[in-house]
Amino acid sequence: MKIPNGFTLVEIAVVLVIVGLLVGGLLIPLSVQWDQNRINITQQRLEEIKKALLGFLVVNNRLPCPDLNENGLESTTCNNEGNIPWRVLGVGRYDAWGNPFHYQVDVNFTNNSSGIPSPNPAASDGLIVKDRQGNELNTVNSGDSNIVAIIFSWGKNGRLDVGTINNVYIQDVYVENKKNQTKTFDDILIWLPKSVLINYLVMVNKWP
Q1: What is the pLDDT along the chain (208 residues), one digit of tens a residue?
Q2: How many CB atoms lie within 10 A of CB 167?
Q3: In whole angstroms, what is the distance from residue 126 CA to residue 120 CA?
Q4: In a domain, 163, yes or no
Q5: Is 190 helix (H, G, I), strand (E, B) or coil?
Q6: Is residue 131 assigned to a domain?
Q7: Against a cut of 0.85, is the pTM above it?
Q8: H helix or E strand, kind and range, residue 194
Q9: Fewest CB atoms less than 10 Å from the CB: which of 67, 70, 93, 201?
Q10: Which domain holds residue 185?
């Protein structure tokens, strides 16, 4: 009997298909882990920016204006939305996907000519955060806004998945649908409540 010395092309093809399936099965969970790791890193950086905003408040008696010129500095025209002024705050500029952080602020808290912090609990630009079902996530009595600043990342896809209408922002769980990109949602945001800002000023003896 003659013993074959090698594999046939069919056998090699079958082996390659099996190896491909095994490798593909390993890569899918790995990519999910990478995404979750980037989400965690981005959330940590957002928290660092939030703390830096409070530190800026204590030193300057106000919150910073957004960066509208992409140079990391405050814009002289204090529009309420732009990039985070990362140079001024001494924080990282980008999220874990390499996209710049964005920042919306209630302009009532960006200017104080008296030099003494005196936040007015009634002052509000009406910043609202909702989930994708329309439920408000941070309001006080009768739907009044309790938000003075919002810091957010556009996430993995690098775009704002739900556009802002009348100062309403969307925060929800990560959703990815590669077959239908219109259903993809990966924006990540946090906000600075007015109550936290006032309590922080009280804690450091700068208000009332």
Answers
A1: 454 556 677 667 766 766 665 555 555 667 778 888 999 999 999 999 999 999 999 899 899 999 999 999 999 888 778 999 999 999 999 999 999 999 999 988 887 666 666 677 677 888 888 888 888 887 766 557 789 999 999 998 888 887 667 778 888 877 766 665 556 788 999 999 988 998 998 898 888 7
A2: 18
A3: 14
A4: yes
A5: strand
A6: yes
A7: no
A8: helix 194-203
A9: 70
A10: 43-203
